[in-house]
């Protein structure tokens, strides 16, 4: 059953307003065209300048072409049952009806942050501005199922990212049969990457796509790059798996090409993972605590000493550095006449 929205309190109204303002301020500072800021303004003039029509790209990246026909076959196979267990199977017609009902649904999760149901629903509607009806269901573990009435609204969401709530990425995946939030492991996000000073001879769609695929599935390429209007850096929109370390550089023949990421606000410089900083890295902290546990009360590091250990000597030996994150440009103060 779809949860009912309760009236927002004055405190929640203030939080929503601050989030929207913070969202606009943050993402306008990154030199990112407003079409991809997630502010709900559907500026077609800029979208027309983007290469977003690579055949099958979005369907493949978001799983909309993964075995849908196989899943609607009848459950004919015989499974071994344990004592006290019964079996339930579905016919092909029953599976077809299920897919027809949920085929225009996605599962989203706010990466790195937990949000309340009412706040998230209001934020998504403000960003996506759907024409048809949209239902949202909290399925647990910070996952939300979003069901669209219109295919066009779903397409706008899938192809219009990356999307943010505040400074947090929205992870999107296709609805899947028998999805259980507690067992969901894979988490992907859409992000713009920059390749600074990439040699101009690589500014061709097939070559850019080949280079981008070393980072993740390529969703589209900034047309200013393809038209040669900007040569300082290449912008490619890719899908990355947040469970894996980020790609920091690409070796193209004898050249090392650094990779920068737009919109990141938390990156662990110890292991290159998103969602936390090095001083809160569970792996680093676990390694620090293990020797302390073995030595018992013989060792007592001060907070300052522990912070130095976590920092790792100012990252001198770390391969992940701050240059990987595109810095937000500081807003110039408005001068009133």
The parts where pLDDT drops under 50 for at least 5 residues are 22-52, 276-286, 303-317
**Strand order in space, largest sheet:** 1-8-9-7-12
What is CATH's topology name of the domain at 10-66 and 88-183?
Alpha-Beta Plaits
Query: How much of the residues is beta strand, in percent?
Result: 15-25%
Termini separation comes to 55 Å
CATH superfamily of the domain at 10-66 and 88-183: RRM (RNA recognition motif) domain
Helix count? 11
Q: What coarse outline follows from CA principal-axis ratios?
A: globular
Your description of this structure?
With 337 residues, the chain is of the alpha+beta class. Among the domains are: 10-66 and 88-183, Alpha-Beta Plaits (2-Layer Sandwich); 267-329, no CATH class. It has 11 helices and 12 strands. The strands form 3 sheets. A 5-stranded antiparallel β-sheet has the order 1-8-9-7-12. A 5-stranded antiparallel β-sheet has the order 3-4-2-6-5. A two-stranded antiparallel sheet has the order 10-11. A hairpin with a 2-residue loop joins strand 5 and strand 6. It is globular. It holds the Pfam family DUF4283. Residues 100-181 form the DUF4283 domain. Residues 326-337 have a biased composition (Basic residues).
């Amino acid at each position: 059953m779809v949860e009912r929205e309760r009236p927002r309190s004055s405190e929640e109204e203030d939080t929503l307003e601050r989030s929207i303002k913070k969202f606009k301020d943050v993402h306008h500072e990154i030199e990112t065209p407003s079409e991809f800021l997630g502010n709900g303004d559907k500026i077609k003039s800029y979208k027309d300048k983007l290469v977003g029509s690579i055949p099958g790209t979005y369907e493949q990246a978001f799983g909309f072409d993964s075995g849908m026909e196989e899943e609607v076959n009848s459950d004919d196979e015989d499974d071994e049952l344990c004592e006290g267990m019964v079996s339930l199977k579905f016919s092909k017609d029953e599976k077809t009806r299920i897919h027809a009902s949920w085929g225009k649904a996605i599962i989203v999760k706010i990466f790195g942050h937990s949000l309340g149901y009412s706040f998230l629903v209001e934020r998504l509607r403000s960003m996506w501005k759907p024409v048809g009806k949209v239902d949202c269901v909290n399925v647990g573990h910070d996952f939300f199922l979003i069901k669209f009435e219109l295919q066009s609204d779903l397409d706008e969401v899938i192809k219009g990212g990356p999307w943010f709530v505040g400074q947090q990425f929205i992870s999107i995946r296709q609805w899947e049969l028998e999805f259980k939030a507690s067992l969901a492991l894979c988490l992907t996000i859409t992000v713009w990457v920059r390749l600074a000073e990439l040699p101009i001879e690589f500014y061709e769609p097939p070559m850019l796509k080949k280079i981008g695929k070393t980072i993740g599935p390529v969703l589209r390429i900034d047309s200013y790059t393809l038209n040669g209007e900007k040569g300082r850096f290449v912008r490619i929109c890719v899908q990355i798996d947040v469970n894996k370390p980020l790609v920091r550089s690409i070796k193209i023949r004898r050249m090392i090409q650094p990779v920068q990421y737009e919109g990141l606000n938390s990156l662990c410089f110890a292991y290159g993972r998103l969602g936390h900083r090095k001083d809160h890295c569970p792996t680093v902290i676990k390694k620090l605590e293990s020797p302390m546990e073995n030595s018992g009360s013989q060792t007592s590091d001060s907070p300052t000493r522990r912070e130095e250990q976590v920092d790792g000597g100012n990252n001198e030996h770390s391969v992940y550095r701050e240059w990987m994150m595109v810095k937000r440009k500081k807003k110039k103060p408005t001068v009133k006449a």
